[in-house]
Amino acid sequence: MASEKTGYYTILSFVGGGIRGLLSATILQRLYDADAEVLNQTRMYAGCSTGSIISSELLATPDPANLIELFKGSELGFYNKMNTHPDTPAYPIDDVLASQEKLHGKNTISQAGKDVLLVSFNVGSVEPEPENIGSMERMMPTPWKPMMFTNMLGTAQDKQDGLDGNGHTLIAVAATSSGAMPGQLGSMEGNVDGAFFNHDPTVAAIALAVRNGWRLDQIAAITIGTGYMPYWLQSDTHDWGAEQWMKGDNNPFDNITPFLMNQQGSSPVLDLSLNGTSSELMPQIAKMLLGDRYVNLNPTLPCFIPENSTNPQAIELLQDSANSLDISEAIDLIKNYWSNATQDVPVRFSNEAAAGAAPAATPSASEKIVPLETQFFIRRNGPMPEVLDIMDASHEAGARVILWEKKSKSSPDAENQLWKFEKSGEAGWWYLKSEIGPNLYLTLTGDTTGEDPRITVQPLQAGLRDHQLWSLVPTKELGYYYIQSRLVPSAAPSVNPNSYVPTVIGVGTKEDGVTAAYGMSLDYRDYEKRSFAFVPRTTGK
């Protein structure tokens, strides 16, 4: 079908991710530095959650520097004032609304200066039915539904087709609604985060452009992400019932993190549902639709960065990841389509999809290990085959943990190098028990803010609980983990548990001819000295 429109329709789309919006803002700044007209020549902003806040800010002030200042300034202060009680929101949504009202006042979506799409989800309601002559008043449900706040729907045909852009909604309310993640924030007029509908609104934005008369070969789009973080379940889910899907099965190698801010523990079915559309699904579909007129800018982060993380290392990592990303393809796209938005468009279409690596084979159930029933060597990252070892194979409490050459799996005296996970009764945290004796557990003796932070083995003690609990955090190199201590550094600056740099097991300098294991502050850059692989003791060497 021929289009009466000329030129190109250009879309900038922003996804959700809380404080990780700093990564998006930094990427946008680089595009802006390459072509200062990119925002002026963008026809539509599309956003979800923190991406809607970015879109809203750009509608008010098209300057990425303001966004960077926002995320590194008032957003950090906001996230550090966290309420940790799970029966109330972690943060007040009225504060978010107030900040948006300062930007837009009473302006509605239909009054936005550009085409815009902000996505949300309405949870529905039950209200008394208005009294009508000849009818009986009753409690009438309004079912929940996805919400699109856009100024691109509103014709008689749209209404006939049941399409509502909610153009009468205030921009401030729409942006706040899109980011109202349950647990993190309360709802806004019954609306919650757009992640329940579409974490990445790019494809919806393309559909709106087509709905408004643009051909696919006239549309160009760039999605700016908040960092790709791989997730997985190591557990064998073949026989899982509702209980495991809701609460997991206490597996230290499962990499799923609670997506609701003050959620007490991970929930596989909930967390994978919320994370699903951020796992590159929408970029793949957008690439199929637009071909070489689409670019997804979303660097892989070396580890999980929570949406409310404020510790300086995490903030620095977000900007480093954005600044090291190759954006040349996006710059070319802007040069070819944004800068020529008014030129005639040749009728052409490329559906060449980005080639991806073949998916790894999924292990069969018989190949999967059961972590809580398996002995592990804990091998350091690097060329030397060294593992966590109890010095001199001591059976005594307080014996030091060092790094030593790994013994063979079949060795009968390997017990001082073998460790086993034990449940702690606290979601996400485990004990690591030595197989050398009946009651010796990996223990952070001191801490990283004063006392000697050496790693030893000690019997389980109530007073050492936080020193003896550990969690696995994947690093940028798949298969290697930080072993994070439950102990909160005494210098933690706020009630926000993601505001401080955690303590992990690291490798110290040699003392008396041996390399000792220590508690060290997590370091994203120098991760090799602080990361370990888990080698199951099975048959063979």
What do these coordinates show?
It is a single chain. With 541 residues, this protein is α+β, with helices and mostly antiparallel strands. The protein has 14 helices and 21 strands. The protein has helices at 21-34, 50-60, 64-72, 74-80, 93-104, 156-160, 171-178, 202-211, 242-247, 268-275, 281-290, 312-324, 328-338, 465-468; strands spanning 9-14, 44-48, 115-122, 125-128, 139-142, 145-150, 191-193, 219-224, 294-297, 376-380, 386-390, 401-405, 419-423, 430-434, 441-444, 455-458, 470-474, 481-485, 503-511, 514-521, 532-536. Strands 1, 2, 3, 6, 7, 8 and 9 form a seven-stranded mixed β-sheet that branches. It has a four-stranded antiparallel β-sheet with strand order 11-12-20-19, with no helix packed on it. A hairpin with a 6-residue loop joins strand 17 and strand 18 (481-485). Helix 2 runs antiparallel to helix 7 and helix 5 (93-104) packs antiparallel against helix 7 (171-178). It is elongated, with a radius of gyration of 26 Å. Residues 342-366 have low confidence and may be disordered.
Provide a concise account of the structure shown.
By secondary structure, this protein is an alpha+beta fold. It is built from 14 helices and 21 strands.
What order do the helices and strands come in, and which of them pair?
Elements: E1 9-14, H1 21-34, E2 44-48, H2 50-60, H3 64-72, H4 74-80, H5 93-104, E3 115-122, E4 125-128, E5 139-142, E6 145-150, H6 156-160, H7 171-178, E7 191-193, H8 202-211, E8 219-224, H9 242-247, H10 268-275, H11 281-290, E9 294-297, H12 312-324, H13 328-338, E10 376-380, E11 386-390, E12 401-405, E13 419-423, E14 430-434, E15 441-444, E16 455-458, H14 465-468, E17 470-474, E18 481-485, E19 503-511, E20 514-521, E21 532-536
Parallel strand pairs: 1-2, 1-8, 2-3, 8-9
Antiparallel strand pairs: 3-6, 3-7, 4-5, 10-21, 11-12, 12-20, 13-14, 15-16, 17-18, 19-20
Helix pairs in contact: 1-3, 1-12, 2-7, 5-7
